[in-house]
Amino acid sequence: MALFELNANLGTGFIPLRLTKKDACKLLSISVNQLRKISLADDSFPKPIKNGSNRQAGVYYDYREIHDWHCNQLNNRK
């Protein structure tokens, strides 16, 4: 996905370094439940980054890792 497509999908004028779960879902056009299922089933899916040590700390995904994972999925399809 091109960077300008990310801007259109997220509705922002910049490229984020990290994505919230909601933004990652929006970028991949999937639901939060689908994101959870993919992250459990696919070992190649990027691991989330927890912002703190508390159980309620925010969870983020690295934009580049999500982008690269998606590109690999497109390249590996039949």
Write the layout of secondary structure elements.
Elements: H1 3-10, E1 18-20, H2 21-28, H3 32-41, E2 49-51, E3 58-62, H4 63-76
Describe it for me?
With 78 residues, the chain is α+β, with helices and mostly antiparallel strands. Helix content is 51%, strand content 14%. The protein has four helices and three strands; from the N terminus they run αβααββα. Strands 1-3-2 form a three-stranded antiparallel β-sheet. A hairpin with a 6-residue loop joins β2 and β3. The longest helix has 14 residues. It is globular and about 40 Å long.
User: Main sheet, how many strands, which sense, barrel?
Assistant: 3 strands, antiparallel
Question: Which outline best applies?
Answer: globular
What's the mean pLDDT score? 87
Oligomer: single chain
SSE run: HEHHEEH
Short précis:
The protein has 4 helices and 3 strands; from the N terminus they run αβααββα. The chain has helices spanning 3-10, 21-28, 32-41, 63-76; strands spanning 18-20, 49-51, 58-62.
